[in-house]
Design brief:
With about 260 residues, the protein is α/β, with parallel strands linked by helices. About 40% of the residues lie in helices and about 15% in strands. The chain has helices at about 40-45, 50-70, 90-105, 110, 130-140, 155-175, 185-190, 235-245, and strands at about 30-35, 75-80, 115-120, 145-155, 200-205, 225. Bound molecules: farnesyl diphosphate (FPP). Its cofactor is Mg(2+).
Length: about 260
């Protein structure tokens, strides 16, 4: 859309791609999911160790997550560490966990901006200090309404569905729920993302064309946006392009 047609529209913080196409608030997805892929390759291309790429990736995450809030996105989720990522060399796992800890320590700036922080995944395997700080941030930001920032850590979509099935089975066993009363909504309500909207737009940079076990239930009707740009280079302008692309898609949810 040409912004000349919108003389009274507040253009501050409006996503605009290189062609000048602006995305109106009502055209924004309710929930954008990000798979932060390509950090390792970004570093290797520069002759640097992989963990250097994660550091750059973390910097980009911090900038983009605040940008998401400023442009009016209501839910943004980021895949920080998967249930499969433990297979990586210990040194790399430690580097990612340290970056995550550093981030949690400076996360008060998100609270100051009224961002609600939500962590999804199995926390039981994470260091105690991480678990404690995650709980603290969730608690302190629980009433904030500006944006939900959802961080997936030790997260796997299948693991999440298995966990939901176990919780539902316990309710059935206790006589609180009849098997035939289980609906899709029952399952949604038992996922780590209970109460959050499904993903509308799933962004994966770095040229890989897969979901990698990320929010597999919640992405059932998501629009996908793939690009060859590596995560540390997936900047605000790249996000604007993805949002402009999303805005012109026709979503039918199985209808016509
Ligand atoms: C995938 O890239 C990236 C990860 C497994 C880790 C993502 C972590 C960060 C962006 C940093 C920590 C985050 C926060 C919130 C502080 P890859 O390593 O698989 O890249 P490659 O495919 O090029 O090897």
């Amino acid at each position: 859309m040409n912004d000349m047609a919108l003389p009274f529209f507040n253009k501050k913080n409006v996503p605009k791609d290189e062609t000048g196409t602006i995305v109106l608030p009502e055209q924004l997805p309710q929930h954008v999911g990000f798979i932060m892929d390509g950090n390792g390759r970004w570093a290797t291309k520069r002759g640097m160790p992989r963990k250097f790429g994660h550091r750059e990736g973390a910097k980009n995450f911090k900038d983009l997550s605040l940008y998401c809030r400023d442009i009016g996105l209501r839910n943004a989720s980021f895949y920080v560490f998967s249930t499969e990522n433990w297979k990586r060399p210990q040194d790399e796992v430690n580097a990612i966990m340290d970056l995550f800890w550093d981030y949690l320590c400076e996360a008060d700036q998100y609270l100051e901006r009224r961002v609600r922080m939500i962590f999804v995944g199995d926390r039981s395997r994470l260091q105690d200090r991480l678990q404690k700080r995650m709980e603290e941030l969730e608690h302190d930001s629980r009433d904030f309404e500006k944006m939900n920032l959802i961080l997936a850590i030790n997260y796997g979509g299948r693991d999440e569905i298995k966990h939901a099935a176990q919780e539902i089975a316990k309710e059935v066993q206790a006589g609180k729920l009849a098997p035939e009363a289980i609906t899709e909504q029952t399952i949604s309500e038992h996922l780590y993302t209970a109460g959050l909207p499904d993903v509308d737009l799933l962004i994966r940079p770095s040229g890989e064309l897969r979901l990698s076990n990320y929010l597999i239930w919640q992405c059932a009707y998501a629009e996908y946006y793939f690009t060859n740009v590596l995560w540390p280079d997936f900047n605000r302008n790249e996000l604007n392009k993805a949002l402009a692309d999303y805005a012109q898609r026709g979503r039918r949810f199985g209808g016509i």
